[in-house]
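Example record used in the benchmark description.
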Amino acid sequence: MPEGKEGARVNRRILVVEDETRIAEFLARGLTADGMTVEWARTGPDAVKSAGSQRYDLVLLDLVLPQLNGLAVLEHLQLDKPDLPVIVVSARGDVQTKLRAFELGARDYVEKPFSFDELLARIRVHLVKPISRASTVRVGKLELDLTTREARVGRSRAV
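Model output (structure tokens):
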């Protein structure tokens, strides 16, 4: 599980959007055992409402849902929360559906049936926050611009 700055464990919140109780419970058990907090939405509208009103670190999204299909949910999520990672978990394995999901902002796509260990590994990858790389390093009056490869001392510039 990811760790915070002081080495403390960070509790990740996952929204599972799945209308099949058996699959949702299986995912919830596995993710909870890994230290994550799981909430469950059974329909497309419930998923849109939950994602709009709560903070989640990641969404696991089935495509075949009652009332509003997963691709429509994905469109809503991209408009409202474009930085929220979504992993599609679906029995639909045709290339056109996968491509459409990626066009709509899915970060990953896992076909059912799936290996829980593989899905967990993919979830962990998407939960890692990208490291911001500074282009300038300062030590005292010395400043190094790593992009232009220039060095400055105070206001003077040396190449």
